[in-house]
Write a structure and sequence with these properties.
By secondary structure, this protein is of the alpha/beta class. It has helices spanning about 10-15, 30-40, 50-55, 65-80, 100-110, 125-135, 150-155, 165-180, 190-200, 220-225, 240-260, and strands at about 25-30, 45, 85-90, 115-120, 140-145, 185, 205-210, 215-220. It contains eleven helices and eight strands. The chain has an eight-stranded parallel barrel with strand order 1-2-3-4-5-6-7-8, surrounded by five helices. α2 (about 30-40) packs across α4 (about 65-80), α4 (about 65-80) runs parallel beside α5 (about 100-110) and α5 packs across α6. The longest helix has 18 residues, at about 240-260. It binds 3-methyl-2-oxobutanoic acid (KIV). The site of 3-methyl-2-oxobutanoic acid has 12 residues, from β6.
Length: about 280
């Protein structure tokens, strides 16, 4: 049995107990090398279905499948040893019924060995959260702007600037809390609504485009390190990865075109002595 509870990872109760105390640092990862870089620095790594956009070039998260989430989840687990890893249940894999959600979550947890799943919580999803938690599956809820509902909302729309939206986001947050989730992502909501949700619920809120009063923050790593030429309002760029890659590729392309690469130190030479087996 190669999959086991790795005691060196942060646990679900440790993250839940951070409420109102130590801030939770979250970022997304979708592959093993990025997970290895983030692992010593953050508390929670989310294998988010934003990978549909930032890895696969899709327009929304709606095209992401359970198999894609499992493949990226396995890679992130291989690259990390310390952070709590949460994998998103993608569009279409959990909304039909609690049983469907259970089948999907069991696959994700058994095939990736991650510690928890995340679901976007509108409508009847809190009942599903309760169903999963009662069966031993830790759940992070996701309220406010729900990217999987982009087609219903007509885009990625900030929530809570009008009274009706405010009430429904608050109701979703309360229901997720009651259902037994151990944390919730609060995305794209007016600051004072995020403040109110954070005060109201008993579990940590992890903000993205929300408020500094949330119990933690999360960003899509690819946005935060500056991999794209467009940055949403709520992202602070801590790096310029797109420029760095471009700066590295330009001289490489020039060297290839001029014949300057590869050079003597980057080639293998014929050896008259020894054998392949001797490893020389
Ligand atoms: O999919 C994702 O990356 C997310 C973050 C926006 C929190 O859900």
């Amino acid at each position: 049995m190669s999959q086991h509870i790795n005691s060196s990872r942060l646990t679900v109760p440790q993250i839940r107990d951070r409420k109102g105390k130590e801030k939770i640092v979250g970022l997304t990862a979708h592959n093993a090398p990025m997970a290895a870089v983030l692992d010593p620095l953050v508390d929670l790594i989310l294998v988010g279905d934003s990978l549909g956009m930032v890895v696969h070039g899709l327009p929304t998260t709606v095209g992401v499948t359970l198999d894609m989430m499992i493949m990226h989840g396995r890679a992130v687990m291989r690259g990390s040893t310390r952070a709590l890893v949460v994998v998103d249940l993608p569009f279409g894999s959990y909304e039909r019924s609690p049983q469907q959600a259970h089948d999907s979550a069991v696959r994700v947890m058994q095939e990736t060995a991650c510690q928890a799943v995340k679901v976007e919580a509108g409508g009847g999803v809190p009942e599903t959260i309760e169903f999963l938690v009662r069966r031993g599956i830790p759940v992070v809820g996701h309220v406010g702007l729900r990217p999987q509902a982009a087609n219903v909302d007509g885009g990625f729309k900030v929530k809570g600037r009008w009274a009706t939206e405010r009430d429904s986001a608050l109701a979703d947050a309360r229901a997720v809390d009651r259902a037994g989730a151990f944390a919730m992502v609060v995305e794209g909501v007016a600051r004072d609504l995020a403040d109110e949700i954070t005060r109201e619920v008993s579990i940590p809120t992890i903000g993205i485009g929300a408020s500094p009063s949330c119990d933690g923050q999360i960003l899509v790593t690819d946005d935060m390190i500056g991999l794209f030429d467009w940055t949403p309002k709520f992202v602070r760029r801590y790096g310029a990865m797109r420029d760095l890659v471009s700066q590295a590729v330009q001289p490489y392309a020039a060297d290839v075109r001029s014949g300057a690469f590869p050079g003597a130190a980057e080639m293998y030479n014929f050896k008259s002595k020894g054998t392949a087996a001797s490893g020389d």
